[in-house]
């Protein structure tokens, strides 16, 4: 049980994919001008995360090491296509709002990172918990950024006009600079609360990288070629 609680804590807080690991920033900054759209992107990404983690965890012993990355990409792209078609069929307004960023979930580094680092090395239940936790962490980060940008940039929240703010919009917040400002402020707050220790720097070293062996072979090959 302790391990599962740690997985949940890491996915939502300690290793939050957006506010700590700084992954998936392209859809985060592009879609976070509207709270409902941001939540929609978070749910869609979480669905792909869960499905891909389940499939990869179940197939981890059957996928040859040398072709694991192409296999992961095919699986993730397949689940992304399912999500895109479902959203297009049943939530067309969200489909048009998310635009190109919906199919680009297939190459979202958050999804691929969990497949490579976690699902391919852990059992089914732990992989599901990891996917749900990371998805919630991603959605929370999207929600926080989108709320601030929509409130100050559009004077609304969940598209409901807010008194005073709706007549005093700061439109810069819904533009790219505003997105970076809000994002930077949230990261600063997270660092302040955690005293800069949300995640240890040593976790990013080559020693724990799942592709260390392949990287080493590539490097040695380059040296021999020279």
What does this 3D model show about the protein?
The structure is a single chain. With 226 residues, the chain is mainly α. The protein has one domain. 65% of the residues lie in helices and 2% in strands. It has 9 helices and 2 strands. Strands 1-2 form a two-stranded antiparallel sheet. The longest helix has 31 residues, at 124-154. The chain is globular. The model is unreliable at 201-205 and 217-226 (pLDDT under 50).
Keywords summarizing the entry:
9 helices; two-stranded antiparallel ribbon; 65% helix; 2% strand; single chain; mainly alpha; 2 strands; disordered C terminus; globular; 226 residues
Mean of all residue-level pLDDT scores: 88
Query: What structural class results from the helix and strand content?
Result: mainly alpha
Give me the count of strands. 2
Q: Biggest β-sheet, characterized?
A: 2 strands, antiparallel
Dominant shape: globular
Please give the domain count. 1
Distance between the termini: 51 Å
What level of helicity do the residues show? 55-70%
Low-pLDDT stretches: 201-205, 217-226
Strand content: under 5%
DSSP helical segment count? 9
Specify Rg, calculated over alpha carbons: 19 Å
The topology string of helices and strands comes to HHHHHHHEEHH
Sheet with most strands: strand arrangement? 1-2
């Amino acid at each position: 049980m302790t391990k599962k609680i740690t997985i949940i804590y890491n996915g939502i807080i300690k290793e939050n994919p957006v506010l700590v690991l700084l992954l998936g920033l392209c859809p985060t900054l592009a879609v976070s001008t509207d709270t409902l759209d941001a939540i929609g992107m978070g749910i869609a990404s979480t669905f792909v995360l869960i499905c891909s983690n389940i499939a990869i965890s179940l197939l981890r012993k059957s996928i040859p090491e040398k072709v694991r990355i192409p296999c992961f990409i095919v699986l993730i792209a397949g689940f992304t296509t399912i999500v895109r078609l479902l959203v297009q069929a049943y939530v067309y307004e969200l489909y048009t709002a998310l635009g190109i960023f919906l199919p680009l979930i297939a190459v979202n580094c958050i999804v691929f990172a969990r497949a490579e680092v976690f699902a391919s090395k852990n059992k089914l239940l732990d992989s599901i918990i990891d996917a749900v936790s990371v998805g919630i962490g991603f959605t929370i980060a999207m929600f926080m950024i989108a709320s601030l940008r929509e409130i100050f940039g559009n004077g609304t929240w969940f598209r409901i006009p807010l008194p005073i703010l709706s007549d005093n919009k700061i439109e810069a917040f819904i533009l790219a600079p505003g997105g970076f400002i809000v994002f930077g402020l949230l990261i600063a707050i997270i660092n302040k609360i955690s005293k800069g220790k949300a995640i240890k720097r040593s976790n990013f070293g080559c020693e724990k990288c799942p592709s260390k062996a392949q990287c080493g072979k590539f490097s040695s090959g380059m040296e021999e070629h020279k």
